[in-house]
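If you are new to this repository, start here. Below is one unmodified record pulled from the training split, so you can see the exact layout before writing a loader.
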Amino acid sequence: MWSTLLILVLASSGVLQVSGIRISTPGSMEAVNGTDVRLKCTFYSSSAINANSVTISWTFRPLTKGREETVFHYQQKPYPPVEGIFRKRIAWDGNIMGQDASIIIRQVKFTYNGTYICQVKNPPDVHGTVGEIKLRNEPFPSFHWIALIPTCWETL
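And here is the target side for that same chain:
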């Protein structure tokens, strides 16, 4: 009982604070083979954003039984991959102060099908959720996109 009371007193006084990064992603996305796709990842930190200390990591887990691969890293500046399947395919499209950790994948390939994981750290706020996006690459646009094309042409 005393330990519970002590925790309540410390929490209400601000001495004991629980913080964590919250990440938001669309969950799943479709991309048309050969096009560019923006993987949106936004974050909320309970600590003030410090552009010099924020780190962002993107990793890729393929659908097939391959190993997880680093896609992108940000620490004061973008570090796109210099080797691997994403070499020369990743572009930074985020804004640290806008709490945006998004990237663009250029010329999507079928081998890019899988799960993309966005992780953000803003010390001292380094724990919390990660964002995941399941990307599915299609050879052609989905039917709902094809249905919109005639409507778009009529308005031009």
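Two things worth knowing about this chain: Residues 1-18, 145-149, 151-156 have pLDDT under 50 and may be disordered. The radius of gyration is 20 Å.
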